[in-house]
TrEMBL record:
<protein>
    <recommendedName>
        <fullName>HTH LytTR-type domain-containing protein</fullName>
    </recommendedName>
</protein>
<dbReference type="InterPro" id="IPR046947">
    <property type="entry name" value="LytR-like"/>
</dbReference>
<dbReference type="Pfam" id="PF04397">
    <property type="entry name" value="LytTR"/>
</dbReference>
<dbReference type="GO" id="GO:0000156">
    <property type="term" value="F:phosphorelay response regulator activity"/>
</dbReference>
<dbReference type="GO" id="GO:0003677">
    <property type="term" value="F:DNA binding"/>
</dbReference>
<feature type="domain" description="HTH LytTR-type">
    <location>
        <begin position="47"/>
        <end position="147"/>
    </location>
</feature>
<dbReference type="InterPro" id="IPR007492">
    <property type="entry name" value="LytTR_DNA-bd_dom"/>
</dbReference>
Length: 150
């Protein structure tokens, strides 16, 4: 299947036109459903051990705690996931990037950043939290943050 893109500056940001053969209708309807579906993850509430769906846009960061991942939300609440941090790398398309060996940060929540000691990067979020980006990930995070500011 060929996919052709045409970029039109006058087009509204929340509008996409797709021209297709009627035979592809089912595929495109599935694609539309996936695009419009709010992205969520399932985590455990540590207070009552119940599973809860969390929208990705409410998550500030993921932090490893051994075989568990601590999920930090914008409203300062914390939840747990029984996953390894490396399994969450697939969230890069949602603007979640690994910043060191123990944390993944939602770059949509970043308010400012500055150079730290030893080629590290200090990132300040809208929730007034500060995260340290290791040297290994600093270049990629700087590029992503610079691109999102343009």
């Amino acid at each position: 299947m060929n996919i052709n893109f045409t970029w039109v500056k006058e087009k509204a940001l929340n509008e996409i036109d797709i021209f297709a053969n009627p035979e592809n209708r089912a595929k495109l309807e599935r694609l539309e459903k996936q695009l419009q579906q709010e992205q969520e993850i399932v985590a455990i509430d540590p207070k009552n051990n119940r599973s809860i769906k969390l929208p990705l846009d409410q998550i500030v960061s993921f932090e490893t705690m051994g075989h568990l991942v601590n999920v930090h939300l914008i409203n300062q609440q914390n939840y747990l996931m029984q996953k390894r941090l490396k399994k969450l790398v697939t969230l890069e398309s949602q603007n979640f990037y690994r910043i060191n060996n123990s944390q993944i940060l939602n770059l949509n929540c970043v308010q400012s950043f500055q150079l730290g000691e030893h080629a590290r990067l200090e990132v300040h979020t809208k929730t007034d939290s500060t995260y340290i980006v290791s040297r290994h990930y600093a270049k990629k995070i700087k590029e992503e943050l610079s691109c999102s500011n343009n």
